[in-house]
Each structure stands twice: as structure tokens, then as C-alpha cells.
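User: Teach me something about this protein's shape.
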Amino acid sequence: MPRPLSITVFALMFGFAVIVSGVLALYAGRTPDFGFPIAPEAAATLAMRIKAIRFIGIAFAVSMMLLVVFGNSPAARNTLGLRWILGLGTSVAFLRGIGAIAPMGDGDVAAIALSIIQLGVEGLAILLLYGDDAAPWFDRYRNR
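Assistant: First, the predicted structure itself:
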């Protein structure tokens, strides 16, 4: 069965969102300044852990994307939806919005806007997987 257009568009959109997520993880982790008082050593550790969690999430998302695109996995499709919801909690926009990350200076507004765009593109890409065009791609019995 040829790959449906929605799967190809998903791969492009999701790939873009993952790259942006990686850039934002590096940007947010470049400074251990938080919106609350914390010892410098603890701030550095917390920044490192947030960055590590984001990169583990990116690696997981890429593996699920590959299972969707090349493995026709409906379980990976569902997992990406759950991962997107969990990704909201570590997004730059959310962390800055709740005050966990202190204002980052000149690039603060741009980082928040890019984070919102990344979340939106990733969410739309995942929604494409649930459309009528993609449904046959995940049918387990299509090759019988």
C-alpha cells in the first residue's frame, strides 16, 4: 500500500516540531535562572535535569514517529498523543507562564511564541493521524 499523503505531511510537520523542540530545550537550559529563589548548584542541577527530560522526550517522540511512518503502528499513534499532552508540561511557554523559568531577556517573547508554534504544529501533525486518509495505514488486516 502506498503511503497516504497525511502520513507524509505528518512526518514533515512532526519532524519540524521535534527540531524546534530541541532548539528550545537548548535555549531554556542555557541559563539556570528560575522564577523562584534557589541555590546556584541546585539551579544548575534542575536546569540540567529539565534539559535531559526534554531530550529523552524528543528521542522517544522520534522513535514513535518512525514506528508510525515505517511500522504502521496504531499504538505508536496513540502514544504520540499522550506524549504531546505530557510535553505541554515541559514546554518553554508553560514553564515560563507558571514562573518556573525567569524572563530570558531579549529572546523571551520569541522563545514563548516559538514554543506555542511548536506545540501547535506537533498537535496538528498528530491529529492528521486520526483522519480518514490515514485510517487505512493503521489497519492491521490491510495486507491479508
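Now, about its shape. The mean pLDDT is 84. Residues 40-71 form the longest helix (32 residues). If you'd like, I can walk through any region in more detail.
User: That's plenty for now, thanks!
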